[in-house]
Amino acid sequence: MSELTLQRIPFTVDVDNRLRQLKARTGITPNILCRMGFCMSLEEPGIPMMISEEEEIGREINRYTLLGKYDTLFVALVKTWMQKSNISQTKIDEFFVAHMNQGADLIASRAKGIADIPPDNKNNLYMID
């Protein structure tokens, strides 16, 4: 079974700009927003779009900064999604990045302000740092 090898997660310029705008509206850091968005992306039907080589990268976030002590959990989530979608786990890096970017885009389009973000509680792993 393949393992996630990425140490830095790339985000397109468009997604990066949307994350910056959402952070300004909510005060929530991009790494937390990306965790929430990642979970949203996994729930979406279909396959997320891969980042093409032509797309400009706006920012890269260090994997530990992005996932923290929940790294194993997020890797397990994408592996489970890949297994359910009958996708070879040899492409785990690509699908992890695709879900991170799609998720960041999803949360930026659905959350207009802090009121649209779920409250912090002990059951929301993505809110805990």
Task: Kindly list the characteristics that best describe this protein.
disordered C terminus, 129 residues, Arc Repressor Mutant, 9% strand, globular
Structural class: mainly alpha
Quick one: overall form?
globular
List unreliable stretches of 5+ residues.
125-129
CATH topology: Arc Repressor Mutant
CATH architecture name: Orthogonal Bundle
Strand order of the largest sheet: 1-2
Percent in helix? 40-55%
Radius of gyration, CA atoms, in whole angstroms: 14 Å
First-to-last CA distance? 29 Å
Q: Name the helix and strand elements from N-terminus to C-terminus, one letter apiece.
A: EHHEHHH
Could you name the CATH class?
Mainly Alpha
Number of strands: 2
The CATH superfamily is known as: DNA sulphur modification protein DndE
Total individual domains: 1
